[in-house]
Structure formats: C-alpha cells, structure tokens
Amino acid sequence: MIPTTVAEAARRFADRIAYVTEQGWSLTYQDVDRISDEVAGGLLREGVREGSVVALVLPPGPEYLLAYCGAAKLGAITAGVNDRLSPRERAAVLDLAQPTFTIDDPSVVLGDLRVQGNVPAHLTEDPDRVVAIIFTSGTTGLPKGAVYCNRQLAFITHTDTGGTWDTGGRSFSGTSFAHLGFMTKLPGSLHRGGTTFIMQRWRAADALELLAREKMTTVAGVPTQLALMLRQPDFDSFDLSSVRFIIAGGGPVTPGLAEEARRRFGASLATRYSCTEAGIGLGTAFDDPDEDAVVSVGRPHSGVELAVLDADDRPVSAGAVGEVCLHSPAVMSGYWRDREQTAAAFTRDGFVRTGDLGWIDDRGRLRLVGRSKEMYVRGGYNVYPVEVESVLSTHPDVAAVAIVPRADDVMGEIGVAVVVARDVNQVPTIDELRAFAAPNVAPYKLPEVLIVRSELPLTAGEKVDRRALVAEINDDLA
Known about the structure:
- The protein is α/β, with parallel strands linked by helices and about 475 residues long.
- The chain has 15 helices and 24 strands.
- The chain folds into two domains: about 1-360, ANL, N-terminal domain (Rossmann fold, 3-Layer(aba) Sandwich), CATH 3.40.50.12780; about 375-475, ANL, C-terminal domain (GMP Synthetase, Chain A, domain 3), CATH 3.30.300.
C-alpha cells in the first residue's frame, strides 16, 4: 500500500513540494520516493528484511517519514514509538516490539542509512502484510501495540479520499508521527498532493504564525491544542481570515471550547472520533447543525458499525449508557504479541471495545460520557467526568477543567474539579461552579473540591493526564 502510493504520488506530482520542515528544508514528492529508496537500501544492509520490525523513536520530521516509507518498501513492520514517552514507557514498548533495528537518532536516517543504487525489490501485493504497530496512549496502563496491515490502510485511505488524487491544500502536522493519524493516513495524505508543514514540537504561537503566514484554510488538532491556541495572549493579532474549517479529534470537544473556537477563528467546526484499535469511527460534518459537534461526536462514517453494549455485550436500551464498540474493515488485526489482550479487546461479534462510555440519542448521534476507567461512584451513583466537564467548560471564568475522583470516608468517592482560570485575578469558587452547573447536572455529580492550576498535565499524546492529576491530589492529601 505505502510503496505503490509513494511511487504513484512521485509520478503524478513530481517536483511539487510535499513536506516543509521548521528549518525551511523542503521535500518534493519525487524526493520522498527517491530518498526512501535509499533508506530502504540502508535498512537492508542492516539486516532488515520482509517481516522484520523497525522501531522509530523519533520526533515528527522528514526522517520519520522517510524511514517509515523505506521500511514499507522492504515489507518490514514499523513500530512507531513516541519520543516523548517516559524512559519506563519507552523501555516497555521496545521490549514488546522486539525490533530487528531501532532508529533513535534523526541524523542517522539522512546520513549512514542512505545507500544509493540499491533499489528495493518490488513487493507482491498482500492485503494481510503487517505494515505498522501503533501503540496506545497508555492513559490507562502501559501502551499496547495495535497491528495494522495493508487492508486496513487501504480502507482508511479510500474512506478519506474516495480514491481521488490531487485535492491539494496546505496544512501543518503538530502531533507525534507514531500515532494513529500519521501512521494510517499517510497514503491518503500522499493522494491529496498537498503541502504539509511539519512542526517537530507543537507550540501554540508557532501554529498561529504558520496559519497566518501560509494563509491556511483548515486548523486541525486535538482539543487541547485548540484551547492552547485560543489562550495565546496575542491571538487576535494574527490574521486568520483564511481559516474556514476546524477539525478536532483525539478527544471530545467541550461546549465552551467549541463555541469559542467557532467564534474567534470565524470558522466551521467538525469533529472526529476513533481510537487506536478502531482505525476510523465517527464524526460530524461542517454543514451539520452547530450543536452536533458540541453535544456529540457525530455519526458513524461509511462502512463503520456502532454498538453500545452492556457488561454482557448485549445492546443497551435506547438512550442508556454503555460501552462504545466499533466494527469496520479499518479495525486493527489485534495487539502485537498479546493474544490474551487481543481476545479481551473484541466482542464475540468482532466489534472492538473503545473503552469509552456513551449513549446514542434520538438523532443517531453518539454522546460520550467518559472512559470506563474514569467513572467513579459517589454514594452508590455513577459519575462520568466528561458529562460534568462539558457543562463547567462553558463557565466564563474557566479556560480548562478536568474532574477526577478523590476517596471519601462517607461517600466512597467525591469529585475534584481541577481548573485553569482564564484570569488569575478572577478565579471561580467551588460554590460558584456548583451553582453554575446545577441547572444541568444532578447534585450528586457536582464536584465538591476545587483545585486551581496554571495548566493541566498532558500525556505524550497531548491528552489530559488524569492519572497524574489523581496522583497529585493524593500527594496533596498525604
């Protein structure tokens, strides 16, 4: 899938600029094909063969891209390792991947690994050839490796592009290349023939400057990135009149963030929802009613089946909360070297468990209420943090909020609101937050403790690190 797409993109787009680095170095589509051939030759010299595992512990950049393409041209498997993982997480991931060859220095890719004149042999088409191991974010434990083959990448590419080539456009990439987005959507990106500006380390001010300078039409990122851009003190000084669309994925968008993003960017908002194991999932369209992207994560994409199941894998009653499960040709083949976890990840009918809890409303939209492992029980009642956060996010003095549980002798657990205030001189009190949310949230769901922070801790995947917040709260209590 990747080798043929790289070659076809080079034929179609030739010397059109495909990627630009922060240092100003650019790669044409022909460069991507030619240099990845050379990198494949270097990998071959290092003992990499079809079926070998190549681990990439690299920041986002052309080196990652070229190594991924080079490995694919040999039929090797790329294990993407987020370079921002902790030493413990990184060691665990590499121990699981058991790579034949590991690249953790970007200079090696464009230096010692480039071997000219050693073009890799043509691979026979095999839909079940493993292409990538994509590790989960590790927010609920050590990462697991989701296995993706040619057939999944082909379906995802067709879903994203409809088989169309040359839609053009200019965009930037601001998340780890080791994640689902880059690893599975690279063929689709090559289909479009556009120019991607690579940010090795995403920073809100730099992203805004890039949007303004290059007159980009689309802002894409995780909700945290949108929030950080909006919190830039000089946001209004950037000329963002070219921006027409906002795409948010990687987590639910709170109503407060959705409203502010639409208003201040002056753009339409669409959401994307999936998980590392599912490949693709649901979303909203730019011409959907505005509330769709606020109250829900939309409806299933074409070819995707959605089920909300109870603890016995039976469909819940209409409007009831259950575990969100997805089925499509994009779903992973399983976890790398872990049959037990693979079996647990799927229902008997082949649906993959997302680990999210949600319900389907009368318009067929999926409404998330949180992760199954984030739910806590207060006095016998289940509380889903996302439900409460979505309301508190609209408070005029709240820039960001996360609800996490704390042990309580009477109630078992109670909610703690960890808040980032818009103005350090105007911080809401816990009573003000409870009063604000009371018309829309049952009393037992309301937080009872307030902690104010300058920022929320993030995982390597730019998601709120709830485990770190819980640990902080327990440390404070101790």
